[in-house]
Automatic annotation (TrEMBL):
It is a peripheral membrane protein. Its main location: membrane. It comes from Longilinea arvoryzae. It holds the Pfam family ABC_tran. InterPro entries: AAA+_ATPase, ABC_ATPase_HisP-typ, ABC_transporter-like_ATP-bd, ABC_transporter-like_CS, MetN_ABC_transporter-like, P-loop_NTPase. Signal peptide: none annotated. This is Amino acid ABC transporter ATP-binding protein, PAAT family.
């Protein structure tokens, strides 16, 4: 089977910082991959290269058969890849419903009725159908993050990227966001998730990857990576977070 994400020998420098040092990774359609690793190891940079929020300096990335090279291809890939950030990045001056509507109208050119129906369906899906007319700052962090997920899903992405989606949340709100992500994983969404939530990884992920110093150090199914890591750097990292 052709991978839906193909990453081949990707290098990225920020000035003299070699943030990605030859990353190779193939992800199949429907796979859920959790990426863990110390701060500064290149996790966010890797995610951002997949939808070309960040340019890479060497190597090749192909998403759903489209190489990230020309401007046209980059735009095509961006519309297929949804991203959810640690800081929810909602538009504070727009109501929840309009946050979920906007890109559908502008990018997908859907009419008002169709985009509103879709937005309401997605707010239902993430468990906050009653919050459509609220402004983001009237919601809890967990609710805002669920709006951000609904907004990304409104574009009908083939791939969802999550960069520490629960790191900014109070502990009691983490699970409601992880539950939405777990449902999405079970429905067959291809997902790459930077998160140290072991419970989520065990429940929802097919693969877990440990990154350090811009490299993939080790990969295994989550249960195995967490309980029987083979690399010293994985053991050292896990001993700090478990
Ligand atoms: P992680 O998400 O694992 O914490 P990042 O991908 O954010 O790591 O960062 C990897 C490395 O690249 C770090 O050394 C970081 O300081 C550096 N870096 C990331 N983004 C930038 C940037 N925009 N400018 C300069 N250096 C950056
Ligand atoms: Mg990061």
């Amino acid at each position: 089977m052709e991978p839906i994400i193909h990453i081949e020998n990707v290098h990225k420098w920020f000035g003299s910082v070699h943030a990605l040092q030859g990353i190779n990774l193939d992800i199949l359609k429907g796979q859920v991959v959790v990426v863990i690793g110390p701060s500064g190891s290149g996790k966010s940079t890797l995610l951002r290269c997949i939808n070309r929020l960040e340019e890479f300096d060497e190597g090749k990335i192909v998403v759903d058969g489209i190489p990230l090279d020309t401007a046209q291809n980059i735009n095509a890939v961006r519309t297929e890849v949804g991203m959810v950030f640690q800081s929810f990045n909602l538009f504070p001056h727009l109501k929840v419903l309009d946050n979920v509507l906007l890109a559908q109208r502008v990018v997908r050119k859907r009419d008002k009725v169709e985009s509103e129906n879709k937005a309401r369906m997605l707010l239902q899906k993430v468990g906050i159908p009653d919050k459509a007319d609220y402004y983001p700052l009237q919601l809890s962090g967990g609710q805002q993050q669920r709006v951000a997920i609904a907004r990304a899903l409104a574009m009908d992405p083939k791939i969802m990227l999550f960069d520490e989606p629960t790191s900014a949340l109070d502990p009691e709100m983490i699970q409601e966001v992880l539950d939405v992500m777990t449902d999405l994983a079970r429905e067959g969404m291809t997902m790459v998730v930077v998160s140290h939530e072991m419970g989520f990884a065990r429940a929802a992920a097919d693969r877990a990857i440990l990154m350090d110093s811009g490299q993939i150090i080790e990969e295994a199914p989550p249960d195995i990576l967490f309980t029987h890591p083979t690399q010293e750097r994985t053991k050292a990292f896990l001993s700090k977070i478990l």
